[in-house]
Each structure stands twice: as C-alpha cells, then as structure tokens.
Automatic annotation (TrEMBL):
InterPro entries: ABC_transp_permease. The complex is composed of two ATP-binding proteins (LsrA), two transmembrane proteins (LsrC and LsrD) and a solute-binding protein (LsrB). This is Autoinducer 2 import system permease protein LsrC. It is a multi-pass membrane protein. The keyword Cell membrane applies.
C-alpha cells in the first residue's frame, strides 16, 4: 500500500466519520423540533420558523468564518466584539447621512471587520503569538474602542435608512434575505474549501503545520487569510445585526464568542484542526439557535441556555477526541495488515 493510497484512505475514513456527525445533528434537530412542537403547537408556526432562521443567519455567518480559523488549528475569540463595533459604527455613519445606502454599509462593515481580522492574522501568523492570547486581547481592545465611539449613545431604528431595515426583516418570495445571504456565503465557502488547492491547504495546515511547511505550503499566508475571512464575515454579520434589530448599543453581540465556537465544534469542526466543514458548522449554529427558541417556548429559565451550550461544547470536544483515537487505531491496523 503506497503512502498516497493510505492518505486517501485515512482522509475518506475521517470524512465518513464527520459526515455521520453532521447527520446526527440533523437527527437532533428533528427530534428537538418534534418534542417542542408536541408541547407547544405554535413552535412551528410561520413566524416561529422565520424567527429561527433569521436569528440563526448571523450565527451561521460567524460560524463559517470561525471554521476557516479552527480548521487551521487556531481560534478567533474577537468575532462578537467585531460584530458590536461594526453594528454601531456603520449605524452611526448611516444615521448621520441617510444618503448612504446598503452597498456603503456592507463595504464599510466588511472593511472594518477585515482590518480587525488582519490585526489578528498578523500577530498570530507572523508574530508567532498564540491565537488564544491574541484574540482574547483584541476582544477587549475592540470592545474598548466600541465603547469609546459610542460614549453611552445608542443607534435607533428610526435613524436608519428604510432600505437597510428592509434587508434585515424583508424577503423575496416569502424567504427572508438574511438566511439567503447566509446560505450563499456558506455554499461559496464550502465549495472553495473542497474544490480549490488553496482551500485544501487550510486542512493540511490544521492536520500538521510542520508537515505543511515542509511541503512548501504558504502556512503564514493561509493563516492570515483565515483570520481575514473570519473578520470580514464578522463585519458582514455586524451589518446584518444592525439591519435585523435596528436598535444597537455598544455591547451588541457581547458574549457571542462561546456560541460561535460551540456552533463550529458541535458541527463537527475539530478543535484540534484539520477536520470539518462549513456545512456542519452551519448546522451547529442552527441547532443552538433552535435550542434557544425551544427553551423560550417551553418557558425554561434562560440560565439553562448557557448551561446546555457549554455542555454541548464539552460533549463535542470529547467526541472529537474519541473519534480521533478510534480513527487512528483503525488506520494503524489497516496499515499493519497491508504492510505485512
């Protein structure tokens, strides 16, 4: 058995295992919806379903961006702060000049997010500073900047252009714009990761940064690109947050870091890097959002939302570890058989 064949066999086995993880999330979603609907028939009302998809859209965008970073064996804890900064800053610009439309808002928001992502990427990839330390630091720096700009003010929906608010709450053919945007971004990101050599580089780097470097892959550039994408998508999510809620204060999306990382890991993107897909991360985001909505419908104490999110994160990390050990044992046995 050649090394190439063994590599392909290992890759296909890992893909099969984590595809099963994604199917298990779908099954959990179906079960959750069925149980909640059985208790309260209004859970699957037209407005209820619409609210779930609207609320999940922003988390899906953040999860897609975070997936790029975690696949490379890093993490970005600053995304929630970026959403808050972008939502308030863009809202402030639009409130001051109603002539600036949606295109301006999106370009400005993505640009602000990309600058934050660039700062993270430079420090992690070229400064060789641990990602956890860098992004925890930039989380507080961005929060401080947001509060400095806000000075205790808030952005109100009446101050924003109607076209922006329509994007956040309107739709086409009965389908809201926000889920459509999230799905388009997810499909584009998933296609890029699986169909382009540069996309597959992210997986190689996450599996073994040292081996990727020895193979001549531009490790630093790819890691910086991952942070740029995460920051840019967080910027887009900030604009959509503004469009969705209209009223924004300085700490918008504060504390979303746990939800984003949880969605990605629960969705099958291994926290140790090199494995997973943006589709799984999106399913994880949808699952967490549905759990939140179900708890509200069932009138459960909000404390349990955070407890369940934390428990799911621990469970997902434990499952990832067990699956990795299981796959490694299977591959060792397979290689031993073919070697003999």
């Amino acid at each position: 058995m050649t090394a190439v064949t063994a590599g392909r066999g290992g890759r296909s086995l890992v893909d099969l295992v984590f595809r099963a993880r994604e199917l298990s999330i779908v099954a959990a979603l179906v079960l959750l919806v069925a149980v909640t609907t059985g208790v309260n028939g209004n859970f699957l009302s037209g407005q209820g379903v619409k609210d779930i998809f609207l609320n999940a859209s922003i988390l899906v965008l953040l999860a897609v961006g975070q997936s790029f970073v975690i696949i490379t064996k890093n993490i970005d804890l600053s995304v929630g702060s970026v959403v808050g900064l972008v939502a308030f800053t863009v809202g402030d610009f639009l409130a001051a000049d109603h002539g600036r439309g949606i295109v301006f808002a999106v370009v400005l928001g993505v640009a602000i997010g990309a600058v934050c992502g660039l700062a993270n990427g430079l420090l992690v990839s070229f400064g060789r500073v641990p990602a956890l330390v860098v992004t925890l630091g930039t989380l507080y720096v961005i929060q401080g900047l947001d509060h400095f700009i806000a000075h205790g003010r808030q952005i109100n929906a009446v101050d924003l252009p109607p076209a922006l608010l329509s994007m956040g709450n309107g739709g086409v053919l009965g389908i809201p714009y926000l889920p459509l945007i999230a799905v388009l971004v997810m499909v584009a990101a998933g296609y890029y990761l699986r169909s382009y050599a540069s996309g597959r580089d992210f997986y190689a780097i996450g599996s073994s940064p040292e081996a990727a470097r020895l193979a001549g892959l531009p490790v630093r550039r790819r890691v910086m690109t991952a942070y740029l994408l995460s920051g840019g998508l967080a910027g887009l999510a900030g604009v959509l947050w503004l469009a969705r809620f209209g009223t924004v204060v300085a700490d918008a999306a504060g504390g979303w870091e746990l939800q984003v990382v949880s969605a990605v890991v629960v969705g099958g993107v291994a926290i140790t890097g090199g494995v997973g897909s943006v589709y799984g991360a999106a399913l994880g985001a949808l699952l967490l959002t549905t759990i939140t909505s179900a708890l509200v419908v069932l009138k459960v104490d909000p404390f349990w939302q955070q407890a369940i999110t934390g428990a799911l994160l621990l469970l997902a990390i434990s499952v990832d570890r067990l699956l990795a050990l299981r796959v490694a044992r299977i591959l060792r046995r397979r290689n031993a058989r073919h070697g003999s």
